[in-house]
Every structure is written in C-alpha cells, then in structure tokens.
Amino acid sequence: MKVWAPEQDFKELSSSSPIRKRYVGPAWGLEMYKIISRSRITLNHHGTIAPYANNRRLYEATGVGALLITDSKKDLHEMFTPGKEVVAYHTPEECIDLVQYYLEHEDEGQMIARAGQERTIKEHTCYERTRELLDIVRKYQ
Fold it and tell me: How confident is the model over 118-130, as pLDDT tens digits?
C-alpha cells in the first residue's frame, strides 16, 4: 500500500503510525490520474464535513477505471450503486475487510471498477454538471 496526500494531511497523524511508512507525498494533475489508474484499489474518505457524498475522488477514481472503496454516505446511491459501481464501507474495520476481500477477488473488483467508469463517463461529466447547473439557473430567472 502507498499513500499519496498533501503533507498537511499528515500533521495530526501519530509519528508512530504505520501509515507514515507508506506515505509517498502529494500527487497532482496528470501524475495523480496515472497513479489512480494503475492502482488496484483506490480509497476515499469524505471527512467529517457533511453526511453527503460529493468529493472529486468519487469521479476521479471511477473515471479512470479504478476500483473505488469509499465511505458510505446517505446519498451515495444517488451517484453510484454501492456494490455494483463502487464499494462502500461504514467503519474502518469494514474498510480493511473490503480491501482484503477485493485483493483476493480481483475479477469481481474489476467488474465493479468497469461499471463505475461507465457510470461516470455516462452521467458524471462536466457537460452533465453544466447542464444541471443551467437548469437550476433557468428555474430561478
């Protein structure tokens, strides 16, 4: 396992955490997309800001065809079908179990990754988001 993230994300992490040994550094732009597309599994966590699923990693990972394991949020099913297009966990322990499962069942993980990519390419593009935004703006003109 390797961890790419901004350095500030590691400030509160214990100096004895085993994650520190896996830290590679930040990755941005095309380099980040190449890393994600080569990964067997990409993990996502939305943080504690809101109970809703909606960060870029949902679309970045699925868009390049990676198997995304993400924290479950109450509206995740509106963007992706958990278990068919992404994999969702509720606890850190469940996340670990799911990672282990999909490392052992790569074919199943690849099917989910392909379905997630198809959904992203079909429904979660800049074109689609712009169209939705224009519909909202027109509604309130």
Answer: 999 999 999 999 9
Tell me if 116 sits within 8 A of 68, measured CB to CB.
yes
Span 109-119, average pLDDT? 98
* Residue 64: both structure tokens together: 């390049």
**H/E segment holding residue 25:** strand 23-25
Alpha carbons 138 and 141: distance in angstroms, whole number:
5
Domain boundaries, the chain: 1-38, 40-139
β partners of residue 89? 71
Rounded Cα distance, 70 and 98, in Å: 10
pLDDT, tens digit (0-9, with 9 covering 90-100), for 55-68: 999 999 999 999 99
DSSP state of 69: E
